[in-house]
Amino acid sequence: MGQASDGARGVAVIGGGAWGTALANAAAAAGHPVTLWLRDAETAARMQESRANARYLPGIGLHEGVRATTETGALAGAATVLLVVPAQTLRGVLGTLAPVLRPDAPIVLCAKGIERGSDSFMSVVAAEVIGPERPVAVLSGPSFAVDVARGLPTAVTLACADGREAARLSGLLSGPAFRLYHTDDVRGVEIGGAGKNVLAIASGIVAGRGLGESARAALIARAFAELMRFARAYGGRAETLMGLSGLGDLVLTASSSQSRNFAFGERLGKGATPEDAAGGKLAEGAFTAAALVGLARARAVEMPVAEAVAAVVAGELTVDAATSRLLSRPLKGEVE
Ligand SMILES: NC(=O)C1=CN([C@@H]2O[C@H](COP(=O)(O)OP(=O)(O)OC[C@H]3O[C@@H](n4cnc5c(N)ncnc54)[C@H](O)[C@@H]3O)[C@@H](O)[C@H]2O)C=CC1
Ligand SMILES: O=C(CO)COP(=O)(O)O
């Protein structure tokens, strides 16, 4: 599988963290030869030797069809490329590696974030780096890396502006327990993934501060309402946001300390500083919050929960002040 008539073969996964490793395992389980590209030679050698990723996915073996390497030449023949590095590094990593990739190999963007500074969605960053002609897709949905890597049942969405390509890629990457639904709503899918990370931080704050499960349910519902407003203003479809990359991922990420974004918020709620709250782990929402709010303000989208998260993460507002601010907003109709 994964063999094109002109010799392009297999799947390349760029980024050897939790999600990159899990997706490499999933692609191998779907029958593809997989090249897992990392930047650090020592780590790649250790992964090859131990057949595991002890730092990011402890206790989970590397599928026999996955080869970890730092050789960029090994990416050159890949028929499909998954880009799985943190959102804020996507521009740099893609810029460095794009020249070695096949120009016709679709690049599947797997990071969930918005670029700070430029306030750009991932698909926009990719188009700026590689040009608008090369095929780009976005993969997002409720999926903890550890669940996917273990082969537990998981469903996500793959979006590509070319709907037929989206269907082809979702068939190619789906496996025994990893189901990819497809759509042509790229913007909707990337908004769902990036936005839910910011909003999950708020849910974690509510849990950490001990505000109760009723407050957390209300917060999630109101957070989803603002995510829908944002998507509407930026061209994402409502039905996409009500699906896996949106409601599905918000439910997962805003309900479990297994989520790094939720755990980040939980620690903030317990009094940690924004600097300490990540605990050395990647909490994408902390980087994306300001960009999400910037985009919302630019189109006059009301996002009080995201605003509160951005202010707390920036150290401009305490958790208690942010809570009071949200509770003292004027009462309004539920659907406005
Ligand atoms: N872990 C999960 O369950 C899921 C994560 N994601 C998304 O996937 C993206 C990556 O997340 P994880 O793999 O979980 O993070 P991670 O923190 O586990 O791993 C990040 C990896 O990227 C590498 N990296 C960082 N900067 C780099 C650079 N400049 N060049 C090359 N490699 C670089 C790191 O060395 C590390 O191997 C994030 O946007 C996240 O939101 C999406 C779905 C599930
Ligand atoms: O995106 C994820 C689940 O779908 C992973 O969430 P965290 O990055 O918060 O751990």
UniProtKB/TrEMBL annotation:
Keyword NAD applies: yes
Q: Which residues form the Glycerol-3-phosphate dehydrogenase NAD-dependent C-terminal domain?
A: 185-322
**Top-level EC class as recorded in UniProt:** oxidoreductase
Q: Where is the active site?
A: 196 (proton acceptor)
The UniProt entry lists the main location of this chain as cytoplasm
Residues involved in sn-glycerol 3-phosphate binding: 112, 141, 143, 196, 249, 259-261
Q: What is its EC number?
A: 1.1.1.94
**Where does it live in the cell?**
Cytoplasm
Question: Which cellular component, as a GO term, is one annotated location?
Answer: cytosol
Question: What's the catalysed reaction?
Answer: sn-glycerol 3-phosphate + NAD(+) = dihydroxyacetone phosphate + NADH + H(+); sn-glycerol 3-phosphate + NADP(+) = dihydroxyacetone phosphate + NADPH + H(+)
| Record pathway | Membrane lipid metabolism; glycerophospholipid metabolism
Gene3D superfamilies this protein is in?
A: N-(1-d-carboxylethyl)-l-norvaline Dehydrogenase, domain 2 (1.10.1040.10), NAD(P)-binding Rossmann-like Domain (3.40.50.720)
One GO term of the biological process aspect: phospholipid biosynthetic process
Q: Which SUPFAM superfamilies match?
A: 6-phosphogluconate dehydrogenase C-terminal domain-like (SSF48179), NAD(P)-binding Rossmann-fold domains (SSF51735)
Limits of the Glycerol-3-phosphate dehydrogenase NAD-dependent N-terminal domain: 11-163
The task this protein performs is described as: Catalyzes the reduction of the glycolytic intermediate dihydroxyacetone phosphate (DHAP) to sn-glycerol 3-phosphate (G3P), the key precursor for phospholipid synthesis.
The UniProt similarity line reads: Belongs to the NAD-dependent glycerol-3-phosphate dehydrogenase family.
Question: Can you name this protein?
Answer: Glycerol-3-phosphate dehydrogenase [NAD(P)+]
